[in-house]
Amino acid sequence: MSARKLTSWIFRCALAVPFALIAVDLWTGFLEGARWWWFVLSTVLAVVLGRVLNRQSAPAAEQGAEAREPVGIAAPVAGRWSALNSPADRTPSHGTHAYGQTYAIDVVAEPGQGARPGPSLLWPLVRRNRAFPAFGAPLHAVADATVVRATGTRRDHLSRTSLPAALYLMLVEGTVREMGGVGNLLGNHLVLDLGDGTHAAYAHLQRGSLTVREGDRVHAGQVIARCGNSGNSSEPHLHFQLMDGPDLETARGVPFTWHGIGVPRNGETFEASPAPAPRIG
């Protein structure tokens, strides 16, 4: 087991310890008045291990090695979209290097003014996925590649775009998913081997929408799944990233640039046209 895998496993255990201790104490009174000390100590341990995992997962450039040049690929979406949590604004884009997320980007469909519901303070508390134009949108292979991971059976949940729902996602739902491992964070997902030590990950896919299986060979532009709202997701969107390996627990992020687009900044809308898939027959 690699050091990063071991750290990730201990980190997830540390997240679970405070909840387990409180449950045991409330049931048995075993810890008596010391329960909060145990809770604080376990939480501090989880924070420290999270920082260690983040440092271990940093790209080579931050560890004194030569930086990788951005990999040029086609866009994974088609039509008018906008970017969130973009590496063009900061790295790591999602606040952590863990799980190969250094250069990850989130994109949401923006087909027209007002087509995508904005966040709400209190109401509606949640929205159905069909209210978001990204839900069910086709996703495309960014290059000729081989499918090395494919998971498509997790459910699509309702949106988490109101303030109470967002807090629930961050403080409760996200923590529980983190304890369950990276697959629970990604929801339905695909990992493609692009060759030359580069892998592409697509996360939060629609349940039952995957058109490929592990071992399949795909071509640039081919529809491989549809955008969903599974895993640790606030609304239907695509989380996309490049990595240096197929295992997200040990992979490091790889920078990318989309042909004809570059890397859109946060809030920037862009028109995408993926590479055309070759004709068969």
Description:
There is one protein chain. The chain has 281 residues and is of the alpha+beta class. The chain has two domains: 54 residues; 202 residues, Glucose Permease (Domain IIA) (Distorted Sandwich), CATH 2.70.70.10. Helices cover 25% and strands 22% of the residues. It is built from four helices and 13 strands. The strands form three sheets. Strands 2, 3, 5, 6, 7, 8, 10, 11 and 13 form a nine-stranded antiparallel beta sheet that branches. It has a two-stranded parallel ribbon with strand order 1-12. A two-stranded antiparallel sheet has the order 4-9. A hairpin with a 2-residue loop joins strand 6 and strand 7. Helix 1 runs antiparallel to helix 2 and helix 1 crosses helix 3. The longest helix is centred in the N-terminal third of the chain and has 26 residues. The N and C termini lie far apart (45 Å).
